[in-house]
Amino acid sequence: MQTDNSYANTFATDSDAELVLPSHPAQAREPQWLAFNAELAGQLGIPESLHTTAAGLGLYSGTELPDWIQPVALGYAGHQFANFVPRLGDGRALLLTEIIAPDGERFDLQLKGSGTTPFSRGGDGKAPLGPVMREFLVSEAMHALGVPTTRALAAVVTGDWVQRDEAQPGAIITRVAKSHLRIGTAQFVAHKITQGADESLRQAFADYVIARHYPLSKDRKHPYRALLRQIIDQQAHTVALWMSLGFVHGVMNTDNMTLSGETIDYGPCAFMENYDPNAVFSAIDRAGRYAYQNQPGIALWNLARLAEAWLPLLAKSGESQQQLIEAATELVHEFPIRYEAYYDQKMAFKLGLNSVTAETQALTRDWLSLLQDHALDYTQSFRQLADTLETNVEHFEKMQSWAAWQQRWHKLLTLQGDSDAVVSARMRQHNPAVIPRNHWVEAAIKQTVASGDLTIFNELTQVLRTPYDVVPLELSRYAEPAAPEKRVTRTFCGT
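^ Protein nucleotidyltransferase YdiU, sequence as received from the core. Prediction below:
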């Protein structure tokens, strides 16, 4: 297995910058396996000696680290609910190393929940079992759904207790990402420069991002503008996929948006059941800042903060400050254009249509209005819409305006000339049969916390690996919406 520490080696020498600070995990009292992702381990080229072995348990619990591990905590800042916090950082996470996969791609290997770091700010640096299980299930489901995301390699229980509202079992997740660099990292660099760090740190960090994630930007006439544009495009694509799946991140602070475009930090996240543009699940988002329908606008706001952090790098020779600000603003406002293009195409596919027109956009809007007006399940309704090509779906037939909408839909399908079989197949490729529904995630957590039983967790893990396939009959309950009395409407981040 080939490993590296390129980020630490680049920035650890500047201790005043605090981008990288050495730290070590706490000793877990009695670590035990919860889950291991052998498929991901194989893709990363991790040897079997570090799978479900004693050596693997020592690594993923942080209790026995090999000599080639150099654990560090990463510094970053962030706007949390629009309030700037200049020093956040990995308060309960440690970057162990960077793995070079057999295909040459580089990934961070990180422990989360492994104890205090220099950025813990008085916290215990640990993670309860519930949030670890949630992140394992949802991040792997997002990957299977085709969304850029951090992934879960391993999860262990520590044998320790973590005190939150009540004592809970402690756990650690091993997270894999293309990197853990965030918009908040760029903000941290910019803030450090205002506090006396050398201006060269801004360019050094941006150059590292280019080398790590966007090498094509390096040879452009204005490489940092090209870099910002590529990040904007990646974020537009990711958020469009969230929206098409009914996913609510829950805490879109600037420190929770990666520069790679991967979804990160599955704390108070959830998937909508009934379609509701105002859906909020985070227990701390009392004003609805990060509601489902607000996510594209928040992404735009966050990207504006990134442009501010990198503003000196975006300047052209002879350009005035006002011209620079206008140019940066224009760059950032490419986001809604790119987002809408990605979203409209994805929604057209979900309706079985192969191109985007004004008619398909109107059809999508009116379909969502029907779902909202009749309080229908978002995920199931798209899947059942494909069924209407072959049979009647009773609750659609009862919907006011269904017949008129269906007629418009069939007209567009006829114009594109595809058979019902082709349309139905396309729809099933873009509309999952199963998502990690909140009530089942919570049921898995409660079962494991109460008795150590992993039945629901393991069955959910299994069915979520192939979310677009027909769900086996014996697991079909995981595709069903929650009964009203079982709905989980509030989730927590676990800090």
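DSSP finds 17 helices and 13 strands in the chain.
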